[in-house]
Amino acid sequence: MEKLTVSVKEHQYNVYVGSKTYELFASEYADLINSTDKIGIIADSHVAELHLPLLKNALARTGREISVKIVPGGESCKSSDVYVDCQSFLLTEGFTRNSLLIAFGGGACGDLTGFVAATFMRGIRFIQCPTTVLAHDSAVGGKTAINMPEGKNMVGAFHQPAAVLFDTDVFKTLPASEMRSGMAELIKHAFISDAVWTEQLLVEEQFSTPSIEWLESELMQGIHVKAQIVGEDEFEHSTRKFLNFGHTFGHAVEAASGYGKLSHGECVMIGMGYAFLLSEKHGDISADFTNQYLQFAKQNGYTFEPVFSYSFDELLSYMQKDKKASFGKMNFVMLKEIGQPFVKEITTEQCREVFEEFKQKLESGGIV
Ligand SMILES: NC(=O)c1ccc[n+]([C@@H]2O[C@H](COP(=O)([O-])OP(=O)(O)OC[C@H]3O[C@@H](n4cnc5c(N)ncnc54)[C@H](O)[C@@H]3O)[C@@H](O)[C@H]2O)c1
Ligand SMILES: [Zn+2]
C-alpha cells in the first residue's frame, strides 16, 4: 500500500493506493469514524453489485451501523433528481452535521457524493473510495459537481475529502474501455509534468492492459502530479488549468457524440492529439512527437474516428461553451515542451485550420 498527502490551504488528507486499503477504516481512520454520529455509503449500482461486500466487511470491523444508498451506475447518477434523492435519504435516515459519507464508485459517483456532502447541512465530511483508474484524477482535488440539461458539471462546489482510499483489487472488473479512459488521464499527467516518464509510458507494452502492481506505482505518480498542482492552485486561478490539457477539444467530441458513447478519457486522448498539433505551432513540440503519440494511441486501442463524424462548426459550438472559455474566447492548454504546459487564447480561424490539419494527419498517418 502506498501513501501520499495532499495539502491545500486549510486542509490535509492522505491518499492510499493498494490492496486492502479499506482496512484503514478500523485503524488509521478509527478516530474519524468514532467522531461521527452516522455513516452512509453512496454507491454506484454496478460497483455495489460487484464489490459492496468488500467495503461493508471492512467497515463492519469498526462496529458501526452503516446506511447504504445505491445510485444509478456511471454518469446518470450526476443528475439533480439523484442529488435531491440522496439529500432526502440522508434527512430521512437522521444524518446531521456530524455525519460522514463514503463515495463508492468511479468519478461520477465521487462527484455526486462530494457535492451531496458539500451541501448537506452546509457541508459534512466525506471519504472517497474510488473504483476506476480515471478516479485517480477525479477523487483528488476537491472538485465536486452534478450535470444540468444545459451542460456537464455546471453545478458544483469545491469540497475536499477527508481521505481517499483506493483499493486496487476492484480494478479487476473494469471494462477495457474504462481502463483506456483512466490510462488516458494518467498519460495526460505525464505529458504536463515529466518528459522522462512520458517516454517510458509511450513504449510501455502493458499500457492498456496493466498489471495491478505496475498500475499502483503509476497511479501514485499521477496522483502526485495532481496533488502538487491542486496544492498550488486549489481554486483553478492558474496552474490547475493545466490539468485540462486535451479537454477543450476532447469535451467537444464527448458532448457531440452524446455522453457515454465514448468514455471520457477516450475523448481526452483525441483532444490531446489536437492539442499536440496546436503545440507544434505555438510551442516547440515536433511533428515527429505528434506522430509517435498518434501511433501509440492507435496501438493501444484508442479511436480517432469521431474527428470525422462532426463538422468543425458543430464541435466549435461545444468548445465555446467550455467552462474554460471566458468572454467568448477559447483558451487552450498547450505544451512548450513535454512537461511544460501553458495556456493560450486561440482564434476560431486558427482552431479551424488545425482541425483540417488534424484530419489530414490522421488519414495520411494511417491512424483512421
Ligand atoms: N472532480 C474532478 O476533478 C473530476 C476529474 C475528472 C473527471 N471527473 C468526472 O468523473 C466522471 C468520470 O469518471 P469515471 O471515468 O470513473 O466514470 P464512471 O464513474 O461513470 O464509471 C464508469 C463506468 O464504470 C463502472 N465501474 C466503476 N468502477 C467499476 C469497477 N471497479 N468494475 C466494473 N465497473 C466499474 C461504472 O458503473 C460506470 O458504468 C465524469 O463525470 C467526470 O466529469 C471529475
Ligand atoms: Zn478529464
Could you name the key traits of this structure?
about 375 residues, alpha/beta, Dehydroquinate synthase-like, alpha domain, 7-stranded mixed beta sheet, binds nicotinamide-adenine-dinucleotide, binds zinc ion
Number of strands: 11
Structural class, from helix and strand content? alpha/beta
Total of domains: 2
Q: How does the overall form come out from the CA principal axes?
A: globular
Distance between the termini: 40 Å
Tell me which CATH architecture of the largest domain applies here. Answer: Up-down Bundle
CATH superfamily caption of the largest domain: Dehydroquinate synthase-like - alpha domain
Q: Give the overall pLDDT as a whole number.
A: 95
Structure ligands = nicotinamide-adenine-dinucleotide, zinc ion
Report on this model:
- With 368 residues, the protein is an alpha/beta fold.
- It folds into two domains: 2-172, Rossmann fold; 176-364, Dehydroquinate synthase-like - alpha domain (Dehydroquinate synthase-like, alpha domain), CATH 1.20.1090.10.
- The chain is built from 13 helices and eleven strands.
- It has helices at residues 30-34, 45-60, 80-92, 107-119, 135-138, 176-191, 195-202, 212-232, 247-256, 264-282, 287-299, 312-321, 348-364, and strands spanning 2-8, 11-18, 39-44, 66-71, 100-105, 125-130, 143-148, 151-158, 163-167, 330-335, 341-346.
- The radius of gyration is 20 Å and the shape is globular.
- It binds nicotinamide-adenine-dinucleotide and zinc ion.
- Nicotinamide-adenine-dinucleotide (NAD) binds at residues 44, 46-47, 50, 73-75, 78, 105-109, 111, 131-132, 134-135, 137-138, 141, 143, 153, 170, 173-174, 178, 181, 264.
- Zinc ion binds next to helix 10.
